Amino acid sequence: MKRKFGVDISYSVAWRGRECAYDNLRLGTPEQSYKLLPGYLHMLMDTNTGSVVNLEVSNGNRFQYLFIAFAASIHGFSYCRPVISIDATHLKGKYRGVLFIAVCHDANQQIFPLAFGVGDSENDASWTFHGICMYHLLNNLKTKFRNKTKELEQHYIRTAKTYNLQDFHVLFYTLSSAVPGVKEYLEAVGLHRWTRSHAPSRRYNIMTTNISESLNAVLVKVRELPITALRRTKAAGCTTMMSKDIEMKLEGRKDRAQAMGVSYDLCSLYYTREFWHETYRGVINHIPHISSWTTPQQISEFELQPPDVRTVVGRRRKRRLPSMGEELPTPKCSRCKERGHNRATCQNPIALHPTDEAGCSGSNLPTHQPIHPSDQHSTPQL
To answer: Which helix (H) or strand (E) holds 244?
Structure first.
């Protein structure tokens, strides 16, 4: 502010000004946003008939849980494989909380959003689940059995993915022999939660929560917005019997399929063009501007309060903590172009006049010795 506008203010004043500007852009403060939520949900159901909305409050009319499923998503799910991937991500606003996202795969292996929810945290009161992401469970195993990570990666995934019970017993015995103690750990988790062979219903090829985490990545900026600020696909152009992605896979396996007498009749309806079209038949109607809302008196007079949480002092964290075994990209210095540090911590000397590819100086000026970053602001010797 001082360098650009010539205004000398403290950090706290600048921060409060920034928050005030955000409140004006977002149609009010976070507290006002919670008060608008009941009317917003009423208009959502009015403009999208058949949608499912549930708002739970605690004592003192304080926000607790929220669930939203649009009618278009409910209709489309009937034509998707019946496997739902659920993931949660922390909200970055003043009152924090957790955003829950439920998604599935359409006939073309693309992400189809089903429902959204907001809760206080990832606990048993806010959500339940029946299956476990194969990748996250593997990371937990690597944490517990640190000296056997190679054996885990070699045997665990094959054990989890096999369809046949007989093959499972052979693979599970091999895994248990290679990693002592893992058998008891995985049995305590529940074999039906992480294996295809023991799953009470079909999991198809969906063994991880990657699809819901992908949607979380898309919503990374939205997580900072207040509570009320939170496609049609290429299916219309598809002319083949199956969806485009499935047709490409079948084309690559056509010779083997013909040799075994396999035909389209063995393909599930969930992969067909008709199911792909029907998934996106529904339309999500936009909610009108607040000035044209028409809500019942009991809703307009209901004042929903923010959740009873201790607000965080200081700047709120925007980057999440990495999971166990997750590889993060190393920073690249914009000054020396090397990795492992940034410009602020760079200690590498830089030549005043870099040479070109032929080794010749880029100018007729005399060559200078490289300088160190700590010497850049020192007074030159006369």
So the answer is: helix 244-252
* CA pair distance 111, 73, nearest whole angstrom: 12
**Residue in 62, 116, 67 with CA at minimum distance from that of residue 87:** 116
pTM for the model stands at 0.65
N- to C-terminal Cα distance for the chain?
36
Q: What is the pLDDT of residues 113-134, one digit of tens each?
A: 899 889 876 555 555 557 778 8
Best CA proximity match to 161, nearest among 190, 195, 208? 195
Inter-residue contact 131 to 190 (CB < 8 Å): no
For the beta carbon of residue 83, count every other beta carbon within 10 angstroms: 18
The DSSP element (H or E) to which 213 belongs, if any, is: helix 210-218
Instruction: Give the Å distances, CA to CA, from 68 to 35, 54, 276.
Output: 17, 7, 23
**Separation between Cα atoms, residue 40 and residue 293, nearest integer Å:** 8
Residue where the block lists tokens 């074999």: 191
Token pair recorded at residue 375: 């010497």
State the helix-helix crossing angle for 165-178 and 149-161, rounded to 10 degrees. Answer: 170
At 12, the amino acid letter reads S
Between helix 134-144 and helix 182-189 the angle, nearest 10°, is: 140
CA distance 15 to 141: 43
